[in-house]
Amino acid sequence: MTNKENQDKKIYDKNSKKWYSVSGEFYKAHDRYCNTARKRMQYQNRCYCPKGKWWLCDAHCLDCEFYISSTDSLDEPIFNNDGSSNGTLLDHVADTKAIAEKIVSDRNLLQYLFAKLRELDSEADKLIAIWSEHPDGISDRKVAKLLGRPQRTFAEEMKRFREKYRHLIDD
């Protein structure tokens, strides 16, 4: 072992703002722990600690000056370039949840389309059951095969049905 390896290393404590001498083994373990925590946070875009300040890292990320909070309060005011307030985030964020009226109208539309399909086709309930079993979609060819119908005939019937009622869905 060289003389340099036996020397004590120093770790900076941000709370007390002091340097502490520690053994080489402790320093290596502490450095590895802090680097792992810092890199993980940087990959998640939650840390912007510059390379010249890595010695400050103590793996207490939530208390760190370089920590980037991923959650913003919707009640915080938004300021324009001139310093005037432009409301809050809550005023500008659209609600992505489906409202009850939309859900009810979609359900009613689906029931209407199923009723029209039942008027046109005697095996509509089988067809609806097949569609229900395949929520990701199923080709007209496979549906026709399951119903025991010619594929072209079934495809033409579905094409006419879709064209006739497309205006209700495209709204």
Structure in words:
There is one protein chain. This protein has 171 residues and is mainly α. The chain has 7 helices and 4 strands; from the N terminus they run αββαββααααα. It has helices at 3-6, 24-43, 89-92, 100-120, 124-133, 140-147, 151-169, and strands at 9-13, 18-22, 77-79, 85-88. A two-stranded antiparallel ribbon has the order 1-2. The chain has a two-stranded antiparallel sheet with strand order 3-4. The longest helix is centred in the middle third of the chain and has 21 residues, at 100-120. The termini are far apart. The model has no long low-confidence stretch (mean pLDDT 82).
Brief characterization of the structure:
With about 170 residues, this protein is mainly α. It is built from seven helices and four strands.
End-to-end distance, in Å?
78 Å
Summarize model confidence as the mean pLDDT: 82
Q: Largest sheet, order of strands side by side?
A: 1-2
The radius of gyration is 32 Å
Number of E-type strands = 4
Principal-axes geometry comes out as: elongated
| Major sheet details | 2 strands, antiparallel
Percent of residues in helices comes to 40-55%
What assembly state would you assign to the polypeptide chains in this entry?
single chain
Strand residues, percent: 5-15%
Query: Could you name the ranges where pLDDT drops below 50 across 5 or more consecutive residues?
Result: none
Order of helices and strands: HEEHEEHHHHH
Structural class designation? mainly alpha
Q: What's the total helix number? A: 7
